[in-house]
């Protein structure tokens, strides 16, 4: 395929990226996520793929995409359709671009990856390779909040696969990801007793006071040297300054390095939240460990070598690293299959108003994904 042909493909990719970036699809905007799913589903149907819609009530629908002639696909590709941005963000700053970069909510994380994945499959079809029949694609709808509703779906198909290619985007240096810290989300609700803080404070039981005790204890679980972090990131409660607070809440984020740490952290959090410090209040804890740690192993090392070899053939030397954030790669890795992450396009400043995509990375990352799919398929034949 000539450079002119690829330039035309880049232009086509940008048009599709613009279209789906301009669809509001924050995790909690189900209607928008479903619109993205409908668009992507139709594009895969156009190239002969079967699209199984996994309907969700609380979140957007998930898609499982395979070719009708696929027998036992060994390669699982995962990309998420949701973004972190609230409703109204697209109206404030829709897709835009200049010569080098494209901008917009989710353009980097990870709507561009959706389109490079589609075009990698199309490229394999155009060059006459049947390796696209060795692929199963999951497009899920709640990765940005821990894949709570899609985790079982990912685990189900990961157990049927040999390789997982996670097309999260990468930094501008193109570095792949082979390790991630584990993480979890907890939601603590405290119920107290309201009373006038001046006239009869003795009749009240402060939910905020109880929450304050819990925040101190939860933060004390942090062990920075061991890579364990607990962060009470959002709190709220009370009704007025002269009322003993009848309710309060906290949203808690946790990170860890190992499975053992995850288990111990979960146990400690539940123990702390099992008893009150302020008599007369009550506690309700929801959530848990949503992502086990993604730990580099021999299978991942072997897959990494293959990806790096294919990148070298395309003129790029790639390295790998471990990062603190989580992805669906945590889930596939915990099932025990070889997992490589950050195979999507380059860019930066994810989750911010300055998020950007490096346009010239679209074609190289499309080629790399296609080459890796073909190499893995030929390897197993």
From TrEMBL:
<dbReference type="InterPro" id="IPR050072">
    <property type="entry name" value="Peptidase_M20A"/>
</dbReference>
<keyword id="KW-0378">Hydrolase</keyword>
<dbReference type="InterPro" id="IPR017150">
    <property type="entry name" value="Pept_M20_glutamate_carboxypep"/>
</dbReference>
<feature type="domain" description="Peptidase M20 dimerisation">
    <location>
        <begin position="178"/>
        <end position="276"/>
    </location>
</feature>
<dbReference type="InterPro" id="IPR002933">
    <property type="entry name" value="Peptidase_M20"/>
</dbReference>
<dbReference type="InterPro" id="IPR036264">
    <property type="entry name" value="Bact_exopeptidase_dim_dom"/>
</dbReference>
<keyword id="KW-0862">Zinc</keyword>
<protein>
    <submittedName>
        <fullName>M20 family metallopeptidase</fullName>
    </submittedName>
</protein>
<dbReference type="Pfam" id="PF07687">
    <property type="entry name" value="M20_dimer"/>
</dbReference>
<dbReference type="InterPro" id="IPR011650">
    <property type="entry name" value="Peptidase_M20_dimer"/>
</dbReference>
<dbReference type="InterPro" id="IPR001261">
    <property type="entry name" value="ArgE/DapE_CS"/>
</dbReference>
<keyword id="KW-0479">Metal-binding</keyword>
<dbReference type="Pfam" id="PF01546">
    <property type="entry name" value="Peptidase_M20"/>
</dbReference>
């Amino acid at each position: 395929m000539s450079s002119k042909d690829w330039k035309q493909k880049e232009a086509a990719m940008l048009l599709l990226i613009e279209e789906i970036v301009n669809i509001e699809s924050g995790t909690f905007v189900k209607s928008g996520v479903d619109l993205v799913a409908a668009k992507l589903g139709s594009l895969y149907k156009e190239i002969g793929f079967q699209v199984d819609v996994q309907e969700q009530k609380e979140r957007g629908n998930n898609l499982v995409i395979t070719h009708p002639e696929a027998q036992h696909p060994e390669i699982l590709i995962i990309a998420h359709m949701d973004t972190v941005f609230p409703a109204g963000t697209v109206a404030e700053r829709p897709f835009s671009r200049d010569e080098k970069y494209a901008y917009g909510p989710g353009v980097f994380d990870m709507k561009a990856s959706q389109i490079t994945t589609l075009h990698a499959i199309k490229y394999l079809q155009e060059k006459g390779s049947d390796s696209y029949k060795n692929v199963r694609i999951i497009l899920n709808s709640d990765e940005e909040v821990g894949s709570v509703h899609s985790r079982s779906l990912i685990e189900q198909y990961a157990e049927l696969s040999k390789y997982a290619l996670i097309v999260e985007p990468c930094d501008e240096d193109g570095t792949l990801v082979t390790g991630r810290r584990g993480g979890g989300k907890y939601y603590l609700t405290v119920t107290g007793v309201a009373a006038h803080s001046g006239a009869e404070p003795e009749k009240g039981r402060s939910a905020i006071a109880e929450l304050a005790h819990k925040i101190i204890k939860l933060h004390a679980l942090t062990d920075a040297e061991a890579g364990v972090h607990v962060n009470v990131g959002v709190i709220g409660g009370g009704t007025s300054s002269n009322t003993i607070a009848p309710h309060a809440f906290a949203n808690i984020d946790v990170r860890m390095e190992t499975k053992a740490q995850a288990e111990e952290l979960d146990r400690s959090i539940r123990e702390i939240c099992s008893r009150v410090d302020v008599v007369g209040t009550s506690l309700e804890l929801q959530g848990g460990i949503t992502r086990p740690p993604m730990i580099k192993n021999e299978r991942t090392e072997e897959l990494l070598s293959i990806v790096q070899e294919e990148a070298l053939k395309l003129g790029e030397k790639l390295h790998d690293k471990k990062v603190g954030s989580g992805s669906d790669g945590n889930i596939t890795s915990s099932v025990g299959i070889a997992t490589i992450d950050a195979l999507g396009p380059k860019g930066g400043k994810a989750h911010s108003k300055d998020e950007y995509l490096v346009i010239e990375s679209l074609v190289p990352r499309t080629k790399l994904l296609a080459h890796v799919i073909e190499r893995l398929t030929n390897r197993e034949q």
